Amino acid sequence: MTLQADLDQLRSVGGYLQGLGAEVTALKFGPMMTGTDSAALKTFGAMSHIQYDVLNTTLIPSCSERLSETGDVMINVADKFKNADDSKILDVASTFSKATGTWGE
Fold first, then answer.
1. Integer Cα distance of 54 and 51 in angstroms
2. For 32-47, what is each residue's pLDDT tens digit?
3. Contact 4, 86 (CB under 8 A)
């Protein structure tokens, strides 16, 4: 595989991640139905808090932002190295890693 083919793939996946970031933004969790069970009523407040504060206002926006930013980085790195030769592949990987930061922490 040549560097150009790698860059084309990087650009393609970057665009896909940008699209996923936009789709994730549209996810919203609405109120859930509760019954008359007293256990359900006791936990409703906690569930509503988790649903709204954690999912809708924290997790979904964070996932959307990370996907979109990573897609942007992939496309920008591919554009930066579009005229490079195969000897620059390590520079491509290094630039991408530096731009996306540490994952999983």
1. 6
2. 655 555 555 567 777 7
3. no
Q: Which residues of 38-53 are buried (b: 16+ CB within 10 A; e: fewer)?
A: eeeeeeeeeeeeeeee
Cβ burial of 15 (10 Å; 0-12, 13-18, 19+) is: middle
Instruction: At 33, give phi and psi (nearest 5°).
Output: -75, 140
φ/ψ of 34, rounded to 5, equals: -120, 150
CB 50 within 8 A of CB 76: no
10 Å CB burial of residue 81 (0-12, 13-18, 19+) is: buried
What is d(CA 68, CA 15) in angstroms, rounded to the nearest whole number? 9
Instruction: Provide the whole-model pTM.
Output: 0.70
